[in-house]
Amino acid sequence: MVAWLKRAMDLLNCYFVFSSDNRRRKVATVLLDACDLIASEWGFEFLVLQAYEDDKAARLLYARNGYKIISIDPWWLSKWFGKRRRVILAKNASPCKI
Known about the structure:
- Strands 1-3-2 form a three-stranded antiparallel β-sheet, with helices on both faces.
- It has helices at about 5-10, 25-40, 55-65, 75-80, and strands at about 45-50, 70, 85-90.
- By secondary structure, the chain is an alpha+beta fold.
């Protein structure tokens, strides 16, 4: 893995878990926007995150916020080992507005 990409993933490795009563309140969108701002302030070009292939709500949220799929676990990981397939998504960081 490219060193700067690993560094970016380590620094911006955010996991958001919300209970069902906190969904649909734009909390995740605000947190994603905050990560975008921090990334641009720190001079990062890209934001990278992970979701699961079967988590359609999360993937839709990320797509609406400009993330594109750049990698997905191989099919045999789920078929042979019963693991959920991970999807890696990325987007260009917005220029700093401050």
